[in-house]
User: What shape does this take?
Amino acid sequence: MSVFRDKRLVPLISQQKIADRVKELGEQVTLHYANVSDPLVLLGVLKGSVIFLADLVRTIDLPLEMEMIGVSSYGEATTSSGVVRITQDLERPIKHKHVLIVEDIFDTGLTIKYLVDNLASREPKSIKICTLLKKDATSRVDIKPDFIGFTIPDAFVVGYGLDVAERYRNLPMVAIYQP
Ligand code: IMP
Ligand code: MG
Assistant: This one.
């Protein structure tokens, strides 16, 4: 049963396009933090950002730390509930550090908004957001990602870390899921 040739998937962003764009993002991030003296922490949001984070850190030519945080927003539904909770917290404090949140996708922004508010209370030096994908015109919050890989139409997508009910995270490209 092939995942890569699943008929429910309509290719949207190829593996090569992702790789090229991740490299550009890494260069932007490197430039942005090149002259900071406090530690830089890349904070991956579990589990969707794991693959993006793994590729992204290898394109950032700076000393950095990696942390993960677990949040749950959707359950297994494909529309945003707006209900967010932390399922796994950071291992180390982020006080006086520059935090770059790494997300798979910014849809309503409710997940990120919750995270930013939560992290801000821990007194980091700064908080910025890097997202691989941003859905066009679905934002319901006043914050914007600082680094965006691709802006995409308002469709449900999977692959490169993104799932539907835990499936398709291992798809090397991003595809629209049409059941
Ligand atoms: P938001 O809170 O609406 O911005 O949603 C963010 C989270 O919802 C992401 O981290 C994803 O886990 C999930 N999500 C939103 N849109 C999609 C999608 O098109 N495919 C898969 N997951 C999605
Ligand atoms: Mg998910």
Q: What stands out?
A: The pocket of inosinic acid (ligand 1) is lined by residues 48, 73-74, 80, 103-111, 156-158, 162 (CB under 6 Å). The mean pLDDT is 93.
